[in-house]
Amino acid sequence: MSNIPMFLFDEVKVQFGSSSSLYGTDAIGGSIQLINQPKWNNGFNTGLQQDISSFGSYFTGLKLGYSNQKIQYVIKAFHQQKNNDFPFLNTAVKDFEKDEFVDDAQKNASIKNYGILQEFNFKISEKLFFSTKQWYQNNWHEIQPNMSENYYGADYKEIENNNLRITAGLNYNSGKHKFTTGLGFVYDYQLYDNNYDQTISTQTITGNINYFNSDFLHGNFNIGMNYSHLTSDVYAYNENINEDRLDFFTSYKVKLLKKLTMGINLREAIVVDYTNQFAPSLGFDYLFKEINESMFTGSFSISKSFKIPTFNDRFWYPNGNPDILPENGMNYEIGSKLNIKKDKSSIDFGFNAFIMNVDDWIQWVPSGDMWRPQNIKMVQSMGLELNFNKSCELGDFDLKWGINYSLTDVSDIDNFWSFNFSDREQLSYTPKHIVNIYTTVDYKSWYFNFSGSYTGKRITESKEDLDGYFLVNTSIGKNFNLKENIFSINLNMNNIFNKAYQNQAYYAMPGRNFNLSLKYLYH
User: Fold this and answer.
1) Which helix (H) or strand (E) covers residue 150, if one does?
2) Which of 22, 70, 375, 410 is positioned for an S-S bond with 381, CB 3.0–4.6 A?
3) Containing domain of residue 31, as a range?
4) What are the phi and psi torsion angles at 410 (to 5°)?
């Protein structure tokens, strides 16, 4: 996600858990959708964004668009670079004369990205429109050395990626009926350290067809099919690998009783050289109480999920494992939400508990003098999530604050239902505790944000403890409206208290840093 600039997209949707299986991603933990909605009758519009940040970081984005009743066109382009030459305390190197760790500055961690996205939509009639999108992006980055290599020097490396995505489709809307179909082409190319004998490229052709009915047997009905043909040209494969895949899916959501709603998803994946994978899910929502605009609801769901091994898992020579099995999971979730609205204030409280059992979990582990993918017999992820959000209006002030907490236990086990916590060991780099707090204040054209995030202790692959950390960020900004022109200025300060922390053992992260963002929008 760090290489995808949000400047290019209007909305980001997260599909949690195996409910995302309807979209054909194999994402047992969830998936992300990047969305742009066409805006009709908007005339000429343009946008410009310029960011300047600490440690030699810059971002420039430009958007041009036009739309009327029949056509809508927009083109967006961006360029960003980060030198990432931040200072840090090197805890891998010690000055024994002073009995203290040395001060260091990060080397070989630069990033340069640029890309362009254009979209064209044409209304053939009031019910039918054609759309096409093209997205090209180039990502170059140096491979960050660990702390020891950074201080003593190493054979620094770099990676360049080129990615192209093209889609075209038709959308038909007529009352309760909606029909969509589309074709796509995806090209990914990677060059490692300017060595043209070590290139990786894949090409994928996709097709999809989908039908939606908002009043089928008194419910919402969806049915569709996705097809993909992938070809690869990878230096580390013994031969070029091709794969065909066909996914059928359907869903139905209906109100069974006045307060009870049921949803069911079914998906069948047909992949060459693998047994067909079937992934159903069933969920219920119940309205316990509703008074005026306040309500208390509960939910329960059970779902099956799977993940086909990647090409690298199977074919990377000599590390790949051609006998690796697909992951298969079962997810169980139960939760409740309380929403209280009164006058100009609202309170939201949510609770969710889950268990995810995954058989044949795929993990790359040391094997002799190399790393190889293996199926861990069983992995269980279980936990709970709590969130509280409050918003209110006080005169010209709009106030929002909240807290989110998650407890997650992820362990490889011998029996899914033993619940023997005495000998469970958390999987590497998975924190048990995560806490986020935030406060936002809007006053007329001013806005202020304060947030803090705590990431708990983690365990490395070598079974060492990696300390938890608490980061605090803040921002302040102002909008200037002048007829059809909108100017905004925003100042962010991240890691206010200059906390030294590591996401991965012995890899440095930046301390206190600033970002100044200027935006202009004409519409």
Assistant:
1) helix 147-152
2) 410
3) 1-37
4) -125, 115
- pLDDT value of position 25: 55
Amino acid at residue number 216: F
Residue 77: closest CA among 114, 42, 40: 114
Question: Is-contact 519 49, C-beta < 8 A?
Answer: yes
pLDDT for residue 7 is more than 90: no
Give per-residue burial for 134-168: e unless 16+ CB within 10 Å, then b.
Answer: bbbbbbbbbebbebebbbeeeeeeeebbebebebe
pLDDT band at 512 (very low <50, low <70, confident <90, very high): very high
Q: What is the residue whose two structure tokens read 């949000």? A: 6
The H or E element that residue 149 is part of is helix 147-152
| C-beta of residue 465 within 8 angstroms of C-beta of residue 459 | yes
- Judge whether 27 lies within some domain: yes
Q: What's the token pair of residue 93?
A: 């190197």
Identify whether 1 is part of a domain.
Answer: yes
CA dist 400 → 33, 280, 389, 406, 475 (Å): 26, 38, 7, 20, 15
Query: Rounded CA gap, 479 and 443, in Å?
Result: 11
Euclidean distance between CA atoms 333 and 82, whole angstroms: 41
Residues 6 or more apart in contact with residue 328 via CB below 8 angstroms: 304, 305, 306, 358, 359, 360
Copy the structure tokens of residue 103: 């001060």
**Residue 435: φ, ψ to 5°:** -130, 135
Residue with the bigger pLDDT between 14 and 433: it is: 433
At 100-137, the pLDDT tens digits run: 999 999 999 999 999 999 999 999 999 999 999 999 99
Cα angle 83-89-93, degrees, rounded to a multiple of 5? 110
Ramachandran region, residue 475 (left: φ > 0; alpha: ψ -120 to 50; beta: rest): beta
Peptide bond into 318 cis (omega under 30): yes
Residue 461 near residue 472, CB atoms below 8 Å: no
CB-CB contact of 113 with 138 (8 Å): yes
Q: How far apart are CA 305 and CA 324, in angstroms?
A: 17
Residues whose CB is less than 8 angstroms from the CB of residue 277 and which lie 6 or more positions away in sequence, other chains included = 268, 269, 271, 306, 308, 326
Structure tokens at 122: 């044409």
| 467 falls within a domain | no
Residue 8 lies in a domain: yes
What is the count of structural domains for the chain? Answer: 1
Residues 23 and 217: their CA atoms lie apart, in Å, by 23
Query: How many residues belong to the chain?
Result: 523
Torsion sign, CA atoms 440, 441, 447, 449:
negative
Backbone angles phi, psi at 422, to 5 degrees: -70, -35
CA pair distance 260, 285, nearest whole angstrom = 6
Please provide the DSSP assignment of 282-340 as one string.
EEEEEEEEEETTEEEEEEEEEEEEEEPPPHHHHHSTTT--TTPPPEEEEEEEEEEEEEE
The tens digit of pLDDT for each residue in 154-172 reads 888 999 999 999 999 999 9
